[in-house]
Write a structure and sequence with these properties.
This protein has a domain at 64-130: Winged helix-like DNA-binding domain superfamily/Winged helix DNA-binding domain (Arc Repressor Mutant, subunit A), CATH 1.10.10. The protein contains five helices and three strands. The chain has helices spanning 16-25, 64-74, 79-88, 96-105, 121-130; strands spanning 77-78, 109-111, 116-119. A three-stranded antiparallel sheet has the order 1-3-2. Helix 2 packs across helix 5. The chain is rod-shaped and about 85 Å long.
């Protein structure tokens, strides 16, 4: 069986009826689709799935890196404990690992042999300047 090819044709509104009759009369035309009317998405698994609006992302005053650094400034912490800290303040626990990776690439944290993360000297110096001063 020959393979049909999709062909797009733009026609003026007044000439649409005449053009459609002529195109249908041409030998080899398999079907005609009106692309403006067939913009519905196909049904997933045969069911019409209603579109759900995306949840709006939460905005935090403190960036994830700064939050992690402030926690690690007090003591070395495992990723599991850090995820609990993230959950306590309403952050997504899924972003902990990527935050640790970014900070490791920047040279701000390192992973110790016991599986806890700690600030490097560079990370401690940077965090020390970002933390609010006592007594002011």
């Amino acid at each position: 069986m020959p393979k049909p090819f999709l062909l797009a044709v733009e026609v003026e509104e007044l000439a649409l009826g005449h053009a459609m009759r002529k195109i249908r009369a041409v030998r080899g035309v398999v079907s005609i689709r009106d692309l403006e009317q067939s913009t519905k998405k196909p049904k997933a698994n045969g069911f019409d799935v209603p579109e759900r609006p995306r949840k709006q992302m939460k905005k935090f005053d403190v960036k994830a890196k700064e939050f992690v650094a402030s926690v690690l400034f007090k003591e070395p912490t495992s990723a599991k404990v850090m995820k609990q800290h993230f959950a306590d303040v309403g952050r997504s626990t899924l972003s902990v690992n990527s935050t640790f990776t970014e900070m490791k690439d920047d040279g701000l944290v390192k992973l110790q042999d016991d599986g806890t993360w700690m600030l490097t000297k560079k990370g401690r110096d940077r965090t020390r300047h970002q933390l609010p001063k006592k007594g002011r």
